[in-house]
């Protein structure tokens, strides 16, 4: 068969029945061979970035390897953001790119790009094929690498002249990669040490990340938490790994996590990090993160252990096996929890610092984002639904307020924070899980990054639902500008947004816009009941901010905007809009202003000496000039 036919045969041998992509000149032979496949369905995206995000969403929702096929040059470079997104969140992908013929590589020929070189920092591995004979073994290795160990994306770049050369096709049963041997079994001695430390812990916390989902270790996580009565906090990638309804679930932690989860991490004496990487969005100011805690860090990737936080007990291995070993040892020793006071203290914090409270004082005429998310959560069957998010304020509101009970039911771009990821990923998830209701929670800014994929959903009959939290601005950046940049709203207003309902109609979707808070529930019910793709545009105020929040550079327990019911259900420690946050460097303009005796913020009553001046003993009256008395 030809090389192009061998590409298709290799995909079929791996059990692939779905690929996403966009054809072009250097991939046309592969697409010609794909035309004859009775096993593989091809989903034609409307942009190569969309195709990779769709493959990513499919992989996260199903646990299978996602596959994308594109052409060379701009087709290949358009995949970079999608590949980087998958790399940061450890998602198994195989991305096949066409390449110019071997004889002209390096000559800047038409639609040539060094995609192997370009993507080198954001792939788990990559190949540039040199002979047609190596094609089957390359695909066998690529799929093995993508889905084993810490999952990740693998790139295969295929020069177009190889696609027409012939070979005798034989797909290998085994993979021989001496330099690639992921450690699955945790060290028995380290597991015993971990068990001994867990038995002594009085204020332990399990810090559960996306590795729980990748490993399929949700049952083992739950067993550990229940046996030793250990509260569980989750990362954005770990949401759904531990049931939201479980009394030990503290939910999201970090910059926009709950105050009680952040307090639990700060006051803990032991952190059991399971498939989590101590992201800066979780730790806050690292030097003040969990100052009293020892750390047990379990991860299949040894490079993550000790990379950010010093670890007392490291365990390299697959979480399902390691946690299973820990649980077995605890049961063997008939271990008993010592966390009664700790759990009671956390329960008190949970009651005092809720994410939202009806008495917080929102305007009755405005739609409250948290209530929209809660209503959606109540309407969804947690066992038969998948929530996918774009990136921004809506992402944090969804993470805070939408309950998830099972793994792979909440999909979001975490590490890279990719605007434009959520909508195409939702299409991929919906195609991969046709028995589940898939809802994409988006912002008006993020949705427009890849709104062209509405055509993909329409033509393939994908019944994805899109809920746009529409504040006509780039909400998260605007929130930072409001809190930390003196309301200098530089390039964050989106007044020229389209009419999203008309846009939906143009693509053959149904749609509705809602502006009245009393109509939200009915609008959500209508959206979920629709048979085909549906867009619901929900108008929210620009001044809605995501709270609670840990300001950049602040300690994890230094939380602004948390609701405290003990003082009347008000948000506490919200900075004045023009207050410069301590610890943040002033702008260069402010430094220059101070150097020359001025004021960053003019205050006519400020008579203190300027930088480099001696204090004035008898300050003269204000002479009316800007900056106050001199």
List keywords for this structure.
22 strands, six-stranded parallel beta sheet, disordered C terminus, 630 residues, alpha/beta, globular, single chain
Task: Tell me what the structure shows.
The protein has 630 residues and is an alpha/beta fold. Helices cover 34% and strands 16% of the residues. Strand 17 (510-514), helix 23 (520-529) and strand 18 (534-539) form a beta-alpha-beta unit. The longest helix has 15 residues, at 48-62. Residues 578-584, 589-602 and 616-630 have low confidence and may be disordered.
Mean pLDDT: 92
Distance between the first and last residues' Cα: 88 Å
Low-confidence stretches: 578-584, 589-602, 616-630
Number of helices: 24
Q: Order of strands side by side in the largest beta sheet?
A: 2-1-3-4-6-5
Q: Which SSEs are present, and which pair or pack?
A:
Elements: H1 3-13, E1 18-21, H2 28-34, E2 41-44, H3 48-62, E3 66-70, H4 74-77, H5 80-88, E4 93-99, H6 115-119, E5 125-128, H7 135-147, E6 153-159, H8 160-164, H9 188-200, E7 204-208, H10 210-215, H11 218-228, E8 232-234, E9 249-252, H12 259-267, E10 270-274, H13 280-283, E11 294-299, E12 313-316, H14 319-332, H15 340-352, H16 369-379, E13 385-389, H17 393-401, E14 410-411, H18 422-432, E15 437-443, H19 444-447, H20 454-459, E16 465-470, H21 475-484, H22 500-506, E17 510-514, H23 520-529, E18 534-539, E19 549-550, E20 559-560, E21 562-564, E22 570-572, H24 588-595
Parallel strand pairs: 1-2, 1-3, 3-4, 4-6, 5-6, 7-8, 7-10, 8-9, 10-11, 11-12, 13-14, 13-15, 15-16, 16-18, 17-18
Antiparallel strand pairs: 19-20, 21-22
Helix pairs in contact: 1-2, 1-7, 3-5, 3-18, 9-14, 11-14, 16-17, 16-23
């Amino acid at each position: 068969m030809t090389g192009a036919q061998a590409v298709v045969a290799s995909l079929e041998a791996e059990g692939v029945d779905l690929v996403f992509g966009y054809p072009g000149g250097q991939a046309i032979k592969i697409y010609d061979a794909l035309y004859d496949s009775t096993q593989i369905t091809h989903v034609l995206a409307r942009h190569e970035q969309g195709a990779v995000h769709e493959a990513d969403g499919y992989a996260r929702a199903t646990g299978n390897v996602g596959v994308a096929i594109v052409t060379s040059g701009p087709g290949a470079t358009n995949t970079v953001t999608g590949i980087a997104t998958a790399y940061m969140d450890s998602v198994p992908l195989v991305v096949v790119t066409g390449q110019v013929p071997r004889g002209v590589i390096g000559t800047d020929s038409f639609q040539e790009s060094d995609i192997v070189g370009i993507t080198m920092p954001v792939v788990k591995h990559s190949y540039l094929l040199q002979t047609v004979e190596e094609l089957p073994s390359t695909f066998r290795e690529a799929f093995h690498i993508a889905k084993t160990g810490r999952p990740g994306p693998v790139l295969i770049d295929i020069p177009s002249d190889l696609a027409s050369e012939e070979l005798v096709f034989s797909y290998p049963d085994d993979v021989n990669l001496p330099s690639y041997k992921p450690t699955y079994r945790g060290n028995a001695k380290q597991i015993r040490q971990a068990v001994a430390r867990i038995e002594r812990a009085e204020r332990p916390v399990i810090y559960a990340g996306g590795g729980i989902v990748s490993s399929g270790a949700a049952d083992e996580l739950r067993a550990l938490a229940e046996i030793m009565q250990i509260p569980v906090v989750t990362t954005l990638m770990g949401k759904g790994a531990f049931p939201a309804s479980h009394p030990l679930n503290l939910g999201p932690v970090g910059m926009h996590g709950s105050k009680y989860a952040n307090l639990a991490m700060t006051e803990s004496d032991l952190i059991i990090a399971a498939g989590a990487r101590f992201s800066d969005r979780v730790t806050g100011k690292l030097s003040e993160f969990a100052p009293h805690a020892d750390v047990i860090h379990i991860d299949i990737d040894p490079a993550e252990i000790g990379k950010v936080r010093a670890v007392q007990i490291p365990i390299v291995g697959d979480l399902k096996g390691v946690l299973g070993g820990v649980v077995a040892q605890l049961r063997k020793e008939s271990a008993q929890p010592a966390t009664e006071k700790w759990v009671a203290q956390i329960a008190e914090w949970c009651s005092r610092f809720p994410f939202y409270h009806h008495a917080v004082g929102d305007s009755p005429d405005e739609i409250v984002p948290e209530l929209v998310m809660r209503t959606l959560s109540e309407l969804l069957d947690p066992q038969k639904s998948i929530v996918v998010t774009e990136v921004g304020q809506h992402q944090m509101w969804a993470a805070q307020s939408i309950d998830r009970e099972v793994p792979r039911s909440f999909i979001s771009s975490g590490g890279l924070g990719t605007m434009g990821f959520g909508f195409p990923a939702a299409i991929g998830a919906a195609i991969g899980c046709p028995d589940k209701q898939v809802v994409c929670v988006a912002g008006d800014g993020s949705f427009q990054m890849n709104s062209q994929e509405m055509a993909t959903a329409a033509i393939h009959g994908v019944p994805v639902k899109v809920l746009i939290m529409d504040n006509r601005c780039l909400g998260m950046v605007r929130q930072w500008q409001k809190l930390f940049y003196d309301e200098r709203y530089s390039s964050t207003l989106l007044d020229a947004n389209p009419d999203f309902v008309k846009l939906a109609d143009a693509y053959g979707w149904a749609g509705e816009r809602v502006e009245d808070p009393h109509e939200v529930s009915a609008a959500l019910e209508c959206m979920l009941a629709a048979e085909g793709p549906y867009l619901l545009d929900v108008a929210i105020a620009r001044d809605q901010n995501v709270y609670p929040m840990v300001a950049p550079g602040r300690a994890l327990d230094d939380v602004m905007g948390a609701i405290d019911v003990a003082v009347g259900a008000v948000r506490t420690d919200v900075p004045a809009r023009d207050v410069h946050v301590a610890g943040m460097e002033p702008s260069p303009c402010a430094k220059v202003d101070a150097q020359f005796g001025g004021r960053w913020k003019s205050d006519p009553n400020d008579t203190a000496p300027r930088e480099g001046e001696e204090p004035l003993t008898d300050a003269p009256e204000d002479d009316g000039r800007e900056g106050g008395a001199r």
